[in-house]
Each structure stands twice: as structure tokens, then as C-alpha cells.
């Protein structure tokens, strides 16, 4: 069953329904492009007023204050920031105020909405119910081979989470149906997943090209780190195929907008 379910109240978005039904204070999911082509990232060429309006609209729908929106300056690496209440809201209105060189965010605080941006890369969302810690990580192919997902698990453990309790939701991204890569991507992946060529993650095509399942690669890395399959949800949605729901850099090039994956804890069960 698809874990990222479309929710259409006021501002359509996808939510991880099973997590939210079990933990009522939790808000977790991913935006869609909607009829307004809502874009959430303050990249060069984007209209900042439109982006901030989109962010405000989404936080209102989620019953979070706009001041809770907190994000990093994603650089396709594996750097992770622990968010405290004192730095809540970094990056909400300008890229310059976001956490520099940061692709992973973790917090134990309530009333902080962790936000991360996508247009084909893999969203990784984390929750540990025993310690009530949340996190989000941006995993393009570079972040994947640098094992950002496992680095997030290790940070959770440093903060007191039990590895056996940590749950991960791997969100919509470009699928193996569309993600054609070459040895520049596959060889570094082979270094961290030695069995990759014997797995279903890769399908060889012609002239040294392959179709790659990057979501499955992230899952396999998490399994190697000691998580169980029962702790991991994986979306089957492809951002390149589903053009009415998602932006896609592969499909639209540099003009592509960005979706946002988010996770936060409300102070009360609203």
C-alpha cells in the first residue's frame, strides 16, 4: 500500500497516514505542485514572494505557525544539523538565513516544522516514538552514496533513540522507470552497496547506462545499518511520471519548481 496518501483539505498535499493516525501530534508528508504550481524553494530565478506565500499557505493548512518553518541550504552532502528552539525558523524567508551546507535536520522540539526540498531526489523522513525525535534528510545520489540516511540514524542514537524504534518513510522521487544513470553514479554506489549489480536496484541498458532505483538503494543502506524492513516505508510514486502531482528536474530541467517534504510535532493534539 502506498504510504504517502493525498490529502485535499484547503491545500492538497501527501501525508504519511499510518504515522499520523498512530501519533496524533505528528505532521509528516510532502507537498504537491497543485493547480497553482506552488514552489517552495528559494532558488535563483524563483519569485521569493510566491515561494513565501506557498510556505505560509502550507503551514496554515498544517496548523503550524509560519515562524516554525526551518530549513537548510542543501548541497547534496551528508551534513546534519540538530535544531533547538533557539534557532527555530532559520531559512523561512531567505536562503541566506538557512543552515549552511546542511542536508539533514533533526529535532526533539515541538512547534518546529523541518522542511527539505525536492524535484526528483529522495526524501527521507524519520521518527523515533521512544524518544519523540523527528528528522528529515535530502538524498540525491551523492547524499545516498555518502550514506546520509545511516548518518541520520546514528545521530538519532546519539540523542537517545533506540535503533529498533526508529521509523523511516522514503518519499516520492524519480523511480527506476525513469532514472537513467551511468558509471559516474553506479561506481560510487557499488562502493557502499557491493551487491548492487546482483540486485534489482539496477537494470543495465545500453552503452554503459543503467536504470537505478534510488529509493531502494537508500532502503538497502538502512537495512545494512541494522534497521528491519518493518521499520521502513517506501513510496512507489515517481516524480517524473506523475506530472500533475510533482515537479521533476529530469522532465522540466532548470525551470522545475521544488516540492517540500516536512515533519513536525504539534504542542497539543489539535
TrEMBL record:
Q: Which domain of life is it from?
A: Bacteria
Q: Which UniProt keywords apply?
A: Hydrolase, Metal-binding, Transferase, Zinc
Answer whether the UniProt record assigns the keyword Signal to this protein. Answer: no
State the gene name recorded for this protein. pgeF
Q: Pfam families in the record, alphabetically?
A: Cu-oxidase_4 (PF02578)
Q: Function of this protein? A: Purine nucleoside enzyme that catalyzes the phosphorolysis of adenosine and inosine nucleosides, yielding D-ribose 1-phosphate and the respective free bases, adenine and hypoxanthine. Also catalyzes the phosphorolysis of S-methyl-5'-thioadenosine into adenine and S-methyl-5-thio-alpha-D-ribose 1-phosphate. Also has adenosine deaminase activity.
Necessary cofactors: Zn(2+)
The GO terms this record gives for MF are: copper ion binding; hydrolase activity; S-methyl-5-thioadenosine phosphorylase activity
- Protein name per Swiss-Prot or TrEMBL: Purine nucleoside phosphorylase
Family recorded in the similarity comment: Belongs to the purine nucleoside phosphorylase YfiH/LACC1 family.
Q: Which reaction does it catalyse?
A: adenosine + H2O + H(+) = inosine + NH4(+); inosine + phosphate = alpha-D-ribose 1-phosphate + hypoxanthine; adenosine + phosphate = alpha-D-ribose 1-phosphate + adenine; S-methyl-5'-thioadenosine + phosphate = 5-(methylsulfanyl)-alpha-D-ribose 1-phosphate + adenine
Transmembrane intervals: none
Q: Which CDD domains match?
A: YfiH
Species for this entry: Shimazuella alba
